[in-house]
């Protein structure tokens, strides 16, 4: 019982991490249908942003870096969208391979710029310590994830920009003849989606390694969250992230980390038997 | 006009014959053993690529977990070779001896008795059967589960990727059973022939090339058949296909299983050629690399898949010999360029170049004369 | 209002339109007719910038718009209802209308007006457009175009799949809009409807304008024959 | 990379005035981080030897290949070095898996490999020289140290692969023989970065010390998350055997300072040879660079081979093997002697504590070089480990 | 002998909205039945249920006395029920001929599909002829115009040779001449098979329909001959409507 209670905050905080890294995908994958394998490298870019800012801001880097990393990663996403991805709309599987190529290049670039070994981002002193099995830095990530979700939700559902984004995703041609500047919307979507990856990257410096391969550790999990949650569904992503987080933590507690990963995969396959399109499906009557 | 079409029709088999002659006769004579071994390795990958071309290019199933099936085939073969080696050699140095012969890694992993899973692999027939049957079985089960529930497109891709990740973790975790990260290595003989021998290696190469050729012809036949059209239809409109009276899940599962079987076979050939099978070969990255190779070659043509695998394999070897540090840049850049500038890959590029040439030539020559010239 | 000169376009290397010229004066309703596959949709798509013109010119309100992207043309006052019930399937009916309204920064009243034209959409406002019936989607599609309060309304077979009583309503709505001074470019297969509405018409065949004239001409046997072939 | 413009055949065996040697490490992929530094050290040694007149009057020409963190590639490149480049010997490898992949290639071609990293033992190939520590020169001394410190309850944490699993078997046998208790044994997949649950398990078990065989990036996540769970080095030291100077910066000195590590060499090791080595290394590659145990072992390998060649008077493999036994050199880590029987080195074990400046300070050593014992035949409590 | 199609008490509910509400419908063999009704009345939904695309909340559909409940789409097709879609869907990368050929081939055993197609089967040739697409046989279906696609769909349906044909607004977007061709085609098909057509074109209805069922808000509002139905004031009210000037009624 005690173990059960102790694992609960850990599971939720793993969920928060998953959610944070998957949120950006709600835009790029959920809205644009782009499977961005370079998402992990945008996360990495966010982490390195925090690392570089350290020289200016010292231990406050993690806070200051949040908006900066958003801008940096967002800008990278924007460039990627303009130079390559815009030729690929409507061909999600191709974007997967294209962006994988990009991710390889970005990793090598990071290696050349910052060196292969990991670097260190110092956490603010007030994030040391914690309550019970829940360290403050995990609490911080949890709160950050909540705030980001709220922001994303409001943006998608309460603003004209969000609505235009959905319109472009659903019917590009019609959007254009409805007066929507589809190019602008694409750019914005990509900027935000990638920017969110940057934010996640900053948060990850608190708990994980900061190095050129940082992104590769999270990318598969991030996509699993989106798949389990249902494409483009924010609520789905939240529930799936929490579910996977808890599943991960309890499976690891009662077996071991290797087996936990296998169990998670098996559960997802089983789950898709019941809910093939994920938890929350956006349906329509049209035949695909 | 007739002459033109006849010639065009001849071109396919013609190219095939030339390539076959090059691969089967010229290469074994011209290449030194080390290079021939490399070529054999690329051809193994080409077999996997052929399966990917079938499943993805024709069937729209982007499978990012082909390494799993490659691995199943490879391990089946590796287990057999290991057992042969263990029983033929008096266990060297380390082991205390006595009892049934154990593969070396089991000895240092503290396994005392041959696991039940291993025992039947001592039989070469069983091992060879499992090379194909294992992957096909798993692909069929997974395919039916997943396709019947209409999981497709990106979902399927991500799922297979996760499968590859989970499979590797499982393999690594069962060290006593699988050799862990090290995998299986240190093989001495294949069906009684010394693996280190150059002539064995040359024979292996010929076998690989023949298998690839036969599978290629088979796959082509499939693609050009009604089933191939059906497959394209499933790719482009799975839901509509149901209303034509076909079950898309069955169609997809069949093709997925075929591609898995090919990967398994390739894995089995790979083991004696390269001399090792390890989880590093089966994970997310190697699986993706093969898909990339298919895309580079041209996924919509089976020949493209094969070409892509060989070209990328060769590029990897030679680039990494020249400038190791830059290989990732090169691979990434090459890939971005191909995807943006030539989404149909090298084969597509060649086709459109030919078309462009023809288009430029056409206005200059009156139609009636073209026919005569060729005839 | 709209002036098209020597317009050519097509798909890849297959040319579909061969030097089409037409004009729509302010307040005029021009009807384009022709058999299946002659290039009517291609013509409208090219006028709206969905397809690029390979030759020729499109001018709207005295401005050369040949190279403008679609959304800029909308901003100038052109609205388009594409063929075949196009909507944003996962947005609600209201969302479909709102997104267009916001994109062209129109006043809220424009939305109310559009709903007045199609009162049957009112109870459906919250439903996802993708779940609507074919006819409901088509009504939504037209309403969506009206929200922009266009100066030129371009419609591709707007009555396709719509129940007779609403066809009448649509016809009356087009008539009203026309009467209020809106220019309309209409593709329509129903001869009777075209007859009642059009000031002028043109008949396409194989990417060429083969006939054009006033509504009165349309009643002539010869033109009828052209359409029947 | 550098294939020398030498003619194809038989340059290595002499004939002209150069000798080709192979260098085979991962220059790309996940292992590049570690292996590149070893390559650098080996190249430095070659340069130094060349400057001093070479070997047998011939200059050494390195042929560098990339193993790409991929085991079959190691086998492939090893084949290339031997068959195509005809190198006299090869220095290379880091992971056990890469060594296992190369082993049959070298054994069958009767060519030489010098392997520079501490490893799990239970191996002794006649065509490999092992210049890193085997288990009785690193793990057992580590345990001796913990025992001396009065640590009785241990928790074992490792990455899921051969070295940690073998190491932990030895640790368990040692613990059983020495009245120590193992409270838990956990493995995580390579590259794992989520240590919330594991930290929780460790904290709940309340061990006296943790024996850490995690690899690479996992160490970063583990130490960060351990730190934020409030674990301090005073109350629960974590003894690592795969964390060297290179890794400390990435983990963050904050997170790891005060924890012990077990190696045979530190940048701070106080020998005249080391002063020279560190200076030369920094001069060659930059003052910010640190030196570490595997680098030093790679550096040594080149010198030890050169010495054996000098003694044999030829680069011919069997002659070199025969000549190698008993060679003893003063190296940065102290006196290193080649054990002719199992081709491992006599090495001094050293325990260090990570300092706030990121360097490691030695706090304990074995006093004299320990005889290598890859099968732990000299340890009665370990009998049955090797045999299974 | 039981009627070929029998729908009993069929209800469909979407998120609380009743798209069909207790529909009963009986169609005899050899009938050409028209299904009309306002937009959103549930006509397409009814076809969706019969063909297995939508699961009903209650009620059932019988095909020649056999319940179709729980069968998957392709199984129902194999029992002899074919349909077209309101928005035509064809396989854009396959040629017109291949589209038709696939539609015709589903009864062959799976293994025989692995052989290459040789020549053009009679069924397919006939379908090509009937739909007037013979000239486009080797073009990919993706290049077809709206109306041409509509024809291809009809052709694929014919090539399937089903017992029961369900057509959802087959003549929408067709020119007058083509409507006539379609009408005659359907009449001839209905001689030995059963055809159910959803249509809004009253002119078309008047010329080719005998039996008409009117759906309204998910229920059957009226059933009978064209004249009866057109005369029904309720039908006029909800469906046909009247012009302001009252001079001409729609579609005539
Ligand atoms: N995407 C495309 N690619 C190639 N050719 C096309 C494409 N779309 C249409 N076509 C061809 O262009 C011609 C004109 O098509 P268009 O859609 O403009 O016809 P339409 O007059 O609108 O016909 P309908 O009345 O059936 O809607 C047709 O012959 C068609 O085959
Ligand atoms: N999945 C769904 N979710 C919610 N409502 C739905 C769904 N599918 C259909 N509807 C609603 O059910 C009603 C019936 O739709 P249906 O498509 O059957 O009408 P129809 O008679 O074919 O109309 P039309 O002639 O316009 O095509 C419509 O009001 C539609 O909005
Ligand atoms: Mg059209
Ligand atoms: Mg309908």
TrEMBL record, chain A:
<dbReference type="InterPro" id="IPR017779">
    <property type="entry name" value="ABC_UrtB_bac"/>
</dbReference>
<keyword id="KW-1133">Transmembrane helix</keyword>
<keyword id="KW-0813">Transport</keyword>
<feature type="transmembrane region" description="Helical">
    <location>
        <begin position="139"/>
        <end position="156"/>
    </location>
</feature>
<feature type="transmembrane region" description="Helical">
    <location>
        <begin position="259"/>
        <end position="282"/>
    </location>
</feature>
<keyword id="KW-1003">Cell membrane</keyword>
<keyword id="KW-0812">Transmembrane</keyword>
<feature type="transmembrane region" description="Helical">
    <location>
        <begin position="6"/>
        <end position="27"/>
    </location>
</feature>
<dbReference type="GO" id="GO:0022857">
    <property type="term" value="F:transmembrane transporter activity"/>
</dbReference>
<dbReference type="Pfam" id="PF02653">
    <property type="entry name" value="BPD_transp_2"/>
</dbReference>
<feature type="transmembrane region" description="Helical">
    <location>
        <begin position="222"/>
        <end position="247"/>
    </location>
</feature>
<feature type="transmembrane region" description="Helical">
    <location>
        <begin position="60"/>
        <end position="80"/>
    </location>
</feature>
TrEMBL record, chain B:
<feature type="transmembrane region" description="Helical">
    <location>
        <begin position="250"/>
        <end position="278"/>
    </location>
</feature>
<feature type="transmembrane region" description="Helical">
    <location>
        <begin position="125"/>
        <end position="147"/>
    </location>
</feature>
<feature type="transmembrane region" description="Helical">
    <location>
        <begin position="327"/>
        <end position="351"/>
    </location>
</feature>
<protein>
    <submittedName>
        <fullName>Urea ABC transporter permease subunit UrtC</fullName>
    </submittedName>
</protein>
<feature type="transmembrane region" description="Helical">
    <location>
        <begin position="38"/>
        <end position="56"/>
    </location>
</feature>
<feature type="transmembrane region" description="Helical">
    <location>
        <begin position="12"/>
        <end position="31"/>
    </location>
</feature>
<feature type="transmembrane region" description="Helical">
    <location>
        <begin position="290"/>
        <end position="315"/>
    </location>
</feature>
<dbReference type="GO" id="GO:0015658">
    <property type="term" value="F:branched-chain amino acid transmembrane transporter activity"/>
</dbReference>
<keyword id="KW-0812">Transmembrane</keyword>
<dbReference type="InterPro" id="IPR001851">
    <property type="entry name" value="ABC_transp_permease"/>
</dbReference>
<dbReference type="GO" id="GO:0005886">
    <property type="term" value="C:plasma membrane"/>
</dbReference>
<dbReference type="InterPro" id="IPR017778">
    <property type="entry name" value="ABC_transptr_urea_perm_UrtC"/>
</dbReference>
UniProtKB/TrEMBL annotation, chain C:
<dbReference type="GO" id="GO:0015658">
    <property type="term" value="F:branched-chain amino acid transmembrane transporter activity"/>
</dbReference>
<dbReference type="InterPro" id="IPR052156">
    <property type="entry name" value="BCAA_Transport_ATP-bd_LivF"/>
</dbReference>
<protein>
    <submittedName>
        <fullName>ABC transporter ATP-binding protein</fullName>
    </submittedName>
</protein>
<dbReference type="InterPro" id="IPR027417">
    <property type="entry name" value="P-loop_NTPase"/>
</dbReference>
<dbReference type="GO" id="GO:0015807">
    <property type="term" value="P:L-amino acid transport"/>
</dbReference>
<dbReference type="InterPro" id="IPR003439">
    <property type="entry name" value="ABC_transporter-like_ATP-bd"/>
</dbReference>
<dbReference type="InterPro" id="IPR003593">
    <property type="entry name" value="AAA+_ATPase"/>
</dbReference>
<keyword id="KW-0547">Nucleotide-binding</keyword>
<dbReference type="Pfam" id="PF00005">
    <property type="entry name" value="ABC_tran"/>
</dbReference>
<dbReference type="GO" id="GO:0016887">
    <property type="term" value="F:ATP hydrolysis activity"/>
</dbReference>
<keyword id="KW-0029">Amino-acid transport</keyword>
<feature type="domain" description="ABC transporter">
    <location>
        <begin position="2"/>
        <end position="229"/>
    </location>
</feature>
From TrEMBL, chain E:
<protein>
    <submittedName>
        <fullName>ABC transporter ATP-binding protein</fullName>
    </submittedName>
</protein>
<dbReference type="GO" id="GO:0016887">
    <property type="term" value="F:ATP hydrolysis activity"/>
</dbReference>
<dbReference type="InterPro" id="IPR003439">
    <property type="entry name" value="ABC_transporter-like_ATP-bd"/>
</dbReference>
<dbReference type="GO" id="GO:0005886">
    <property type="term" value="C:plasma membrane"/>
</dbReference>
<keyword id="KW-0547">Nucleotide-binding</keyword>
<dbReference type="InterPro" id="IPR032823">
    <property type="entry name" value="BCA_ABC_TP_C"/>
</dbReference>
<dbReference type="InterPro" id="IPR017781">
    <property type="entry name" value="ABC_transptr_urea_ATP-bd_UrtD"/>
</dbReference>
<keyword id="KW-0813">Transport</keyword>
<dbReference type="InterPro" id="IPR051120">
    <property type="entry name" value="ABC_AA/LPS_Transport"/>
</dbReference>
<dbReference type="GO" id="GO:0005524">
    <property type="term" value="F:ATP binding"/>
</dbReference>
<dbReference type="InterPro" id="IPR003593">
    <property type="entry name" value="AAA+_ATPase"/>
</dbReference>
<dbReference type="Pfam" id="PF12399">
    <property type="entry name" value="BCA_ABC_TP_C"/>
</dbReference>
